[in-house]
Amino acid sequence: MNREYFYSIINGEGTLDYEIYLNTQALLSCQKDFQKLCNQDELQFQIVHQSEELWMKLIAYTLLDIDEYIQQEKTHRVMTLFNRVHRIQRTMIQQLEILETMSPKEYQEIRVFLGNGSGQESPGFRTLLKMYQPLWQSYKTYYLDKYGLNLEKIYDVEYSHCNAYMVAEALAEYDELFQKFRYYHIQLIQRTIGMGSQSLKGRAVDLLEGGVRMKLFPEIWEIRNKMTDAWGLQYGKIRNSIASNVKIPSLTNL
Ligand code: HEM
Predict the structure, then answer these.
(1) Is 83 in the pocket of ligand 1 (CB under 6 A)?
(2) Buried b / exposed e along 46-81 (16+ C-beta atoms within 10 A)
(3) Would you say domain 45-225 falls under CATH 1.20.58.480?
(4) Which of 53, 65, 71, 166 has its CA 20 to 30 A from that of 10?
């Protein structure tokens, strides 16, 4: 195939309605020109990162809507939009895998062009890190405090699978997927530069493992510990094996 020909048509003319509405000229100019790519992996490296930024932008906009719906207690809206956010998060996690097709050696060629940049400078990620606390505050104010509820009541003593419980579970899912993104990102780093290395800012890469353990909504996880311990007091925290009580038929009796 003639490379020059395909390079010349891939960005389109930008004149058709589809191209105008989606601003494809600008979008497809956000990557280096084909001639300037340092190797065959650089285009995927740029596109995966750029797509992830776009998904985080959409998550951020959606969380703003969710926050307002929480304040209006419009639970159905909250659930639909959280469903969207969770799907985007799963898409983001899956996309990381694409970069695992890049060899460590070829990544090193790209790395030279990154300056001291890193994902910690990602505008999308930084924005999301500023959003989870206000979101939790809105949930607590409008779904719990306003009705004299707390997590113990909605998960245990007054458990009825109510709206407050549903929204709490949606927050839990968001938190869990956030951790999963960080975990799969670490797997990608392990595969590409190794976890024992240093970032381009000179920081130890394994510091990222602290992020995986970070909980956005610690109360939602803590309540599970409390309930399990409390329930355990009723049926025995440490119990005898059920094997001693069960009569296992011997093969000869079958
Ligand atoms: C080969 C691919 C990749 C490598 C080798 C890599 C490597 C790294 C390293 C070494 C850090 C730590 C930076 C520091 O301490 O200054 C980091 C952080 C980060 N990277 Fe990547 N990364 C890759 C792909 C991606 C992709 C595709 C995304 C998508 C958005 C991403 C998002 C992030 C984020 C959000 C952080 C901050 C994480 C946190 O604070 O928990 N990275 N990355």
Answers:
(1) no
(2) eebeeebeebbeebbeebeebbebbeeeebeebbeb
(3) yes
(4) 53
Encode burial over 175-196: b for 16+ CB neighbours within 10 A, e otherwise: bbbbbebbbbbbebbebbbeee
Task: Tell which atom from ligand 1 comes closest to the C-alpha of 95.
Answer: 27
In short, whether 212's Cβ falls inside 6 Å of ligand 1 is: no
Q: How far is the CA of 166 from the centre of ligand 1 (A)?
A: 32
Mean per-residue pLDDT of the chain: 94
- Distance (Å) from CA 119 to ligand 1 centroid: 4
151: DSSP letter:
H
pTM of the model: 0.93
Ligand 1 atom with minimal separation from the 203 CA: 15
Give the distance (Å) from ligand 1 centre to CA of residue 189. Answer: 8
Q: Which of 185, 199, 191 is nearest to 102 (CA)?
A: 191
Alpha carbon of 190 to ligand 1 centroid (Å): 11
C-alpha gyration radius of the chain: 25
Measured N-to-C along each axis, helices 75-96 and 42-71 cross at an angle, to the nearest 10 degrees, of 170
Residues 116-125 pLDDT 10s = 888 999 999 9
> Mutation test of ligand 1: which of 120, 128, 206, 215 has the most ligand atoms closer than 8 Å to its C-beta?
120
For the stretch 19-49, pLDDT in tens is: 999 999 999 999 999 999 999 999 999 999 9
The rounded distance, in Å, linking the Cα atoms of 247 and 242 is 10
